[in-house]
Amino acid sequence: MGDLRTFPRLVIGGMSGSSGKTIVSLGLMHLLRRAGVEVRAFKKGPDYIDAAWLAWASSHTARNLDTFLMGPERVVESFIHHATSSGMNVIEGNRGLFDGYDAAGTHSTAALARCLSAPVLLVVNASKVTRTAAAFVLGCQKLDLSLAIRGVILNNVSGERHRDVTRDAIESACGIPVVGCLPQVKSGLLPERHLGLVPPQEHFTTEKLGQDLLQLVEGRLDVDATLSIGRDAPPLPWIQEPSPTPPTTSTVTIGYLKDAAFTFYYPDNLETLEQSGASLVPVSALDATALPENLQALYIGGGFPETHARALAGNTPFLQSLRNAALRGLPIYAECGGLILLARNLLWKDIRYPMAAVFPFDVGVCDSPQGHGYSELRVVAPNPFFPTGITLRGHEFHYSRIVPCAETISTACLVERGTGCFDKREFVMTNNVVATYTHMHAVGTPEWAAGMVNAARSFAPPRDSRN
What residues form the catalytic site here (predicted)? Predict the structure, then answer.
């Protein structure tokens, strides 16, 4: 079978969304780190914000793992290449344990746990139940006998008697230990807004939050039992990480917007660009007055431009610089929040905020999601970044939508799953600019980084060959 290596690991699963998985994961990592255990964190699924919080709690870059976006083999490779073999790897699930792509639970947290041969700690909301909680756990055990549910953490426990009765019922009926019992917590411990949690970059009391999390879990989570379960995970076959291939031509310079308004970047995407021959330059749309003149391409990720709309709209010199760059043919790839920045206006809460006007349409922010879930796109028209004929996988989660306009908007993709920009179309285009509501992961879509770098090389000759 080849070289087997040990990677202690735990999947934190839940009975549903909002069951307490994130609080448990963050609190557990604080306890482990205080005990001197090195921690690496992973997030099941495409969520940027939860991954940012996991990175904060583990003090290391957190990676997203998703079998739909990346495929099972690449999920295992990514985990092995970023996991710790001596400490503990904490993988936070999403939604309910078996909730996935379809009724069979394809691409669920359970599927990821099986893919990684990882034991599961099941977070159960114990509010207003006792023995019924045992039925929840037993049902999860019986639904998939191949899944290693090794322990339970109760959340929202109201008192000692509630804790004892519920714990005893689960342990006697299910044959697995309850390794944690957490009380009800005050709302707002982790503040939320329309896309989920507020990112840690905007949370100005993270030090106090860390103390609050420790106070919540200390004496209520059995660290030794948790470590024992994680360390019992079977070894995995080692997969040699390929050595980076030196670029065959000179480095290209690619900018990316990085500030409080634009934070949604998978670390793997930025790293893959660098491995493909890009020198990355972070630029703030809030503070810079212009794009750097030496850029050969620009990547605009998602984020919360709507909550920074006034500041963005007020930075007229930068918006003009962005519009001029688009007009002169700079390759620009924009995702979700980046699409908003390239619109003519952002409409939010009855206020119109001027944007870069690269595209002739407005974008309005709505009160409910306009697109949410996995997406599949078929590239049907020539564009700066992808060859025609291929299928791309990604995800979308946006409250905004493109407001219909009289102008004809060119698109490059048909939406085969998901919502897209409008009328089951995706990749709105003008000049060398592509904007999309779909986020892609470079590990599962290697064409993305290659397309960005190739477009940059086509725009201008390498710097070392210029006169």
Answer: 336 (nucleophile)
